[in-house]
Design a protein that fits this description.
Elements: H1 2-26, H2 32-51, H3 61-78
C-alpha cells in the first residue's frame, strides 16, 4: 500500500506542477518551486517504477488510484 501511495503522490505532484510551471513562464519569473516539485514527483514515480515495473506501469495508474482512495476511505471509516 505504501508503494501505491507514493506512486499516486508522485503523479499528483507532477500534475500540480504543470500549471505552476506555465504560470511562472507567463509571469516571466523563474519556475524554481514548480521545477523542484516536478523533479520530486518524477523521482517518486521512477523509484516506485524501478521496484515493480509491471504493477506500476502507466496503464495501471487507475488501479493504484482506486486502491489509494479505498484505503483512505476505509481508514477514515474505521477511525
Amino acid at each position: 500500500m505504501t508503494s501505491d501511495l507514493l506512486y499516486v503522490l508522485g503523479v499528483l505532484l507532477v500534475v500540480l506542477a504543470i500549471p505552476a510551471l506555465a504560470t511562472a513562464y507567463a509571469d516571466r519569473r523563474p519556475p524554481l518551486v514548480s521545477l523542484i516539485v516536478m523533479v520530486l514527483g518524477f523521482g517518486l514515480i521512477g523509484w516506485i517504477y524501478s521496484t515493480d515495473p509491471t504493477t506500476y506501469a502507466l496503464p495501471q495508474l487507475p488501479n493504484a488510484l482506486f486502491r489509494v482512495i479505498g484505503y483512505v476511505l476505509h481508514s477514515a471509516a474505521s477511525a
